């Protein structure tokens, strides 16, 4: 089990080691570990209690750890160039998102504002670290700080935890604001989510990262465990939020047919639904990296339970009965996920920024406000329940006098 738990690979990040390992190595390690656990014992190397699944035939080929030479292949070089270009573009986009989050006139002081601020700030750190320690890093080993190099895996878990952890609070706030939109005008209400997302969440993650350096024997690596827990909570809240959107649709119909004035408008329910893809798409992209992070935890703490539960052998470890899991399909899915994972990890910050511009009305309006020099969505946002946000079309450019005589006449 130490092959997995003590490995130097985590979600596409390669730390210092004697053997350079690729993504295929991860799959090879998983397969060999599972096979050896199911098919061998300590004495006679023949499993009687946990036989191999009936519907899976192991490959006859011997799996060996591949070694890369001093000269990288043409594909490796092309991937490194692509990584570098995407990283530079993404950093530029994140800087723009940071500017809009801090100084945006059209951006309300709600939870999603601080969430985008967090994702943009820590996304830059994510790209800086990933560009040095990824398997196809464009600038390998340019980070010389030894503590950073030793904890590259923990740094990546840290940065990947920002989005799912923050979305839990964003979902909660959006549910409340859909029911009572005027709370967005409350300083106290906004201050609560500011404290939860900025001091509390960031402070907690920083503490869990530095817990790695404490002279304490932890039950499990703190930041890794936080990453696992937040992703599970995040996906659960995504499903709960989808159910609320269905309820919100019924509420929208009741509001539209009601003759009584209400602070809820069609825009309120449009914002409600648009937040769903903003959370759903990243939850899918986070899946492969979460799976790889969970492998180490599963091998250390859940492997015995999985074997005894019969999930792999057809129930209770008995040799009779069919397996509940099609291992061929499972390994095919795992292979495709591992191949896609490095690109998903690289594209996290860029995809999140694009989704923020498309799905979040305040950032969409602020973006058009910026590129039109204030001609679209002119002025600051109005309070909810007072007037709708000031949406204007592009008007004619201002007229300036061209000559001294025209200035005197003006």
Automatic annotation (TrEMBL):
It comes from the Eukaryota. GO terms for cellular component: plasma membrane. The keyword 4Fe-4S does not apply. The chain crosses the membrane at residues 81-102, 114-133, 162-180, 187-211, 231-254, 275-299, 337-360. The keyword Zinc does not apply. Keywords: Membrane, Transmembrane, Transmembrane helix. This is Transmembrane protein.
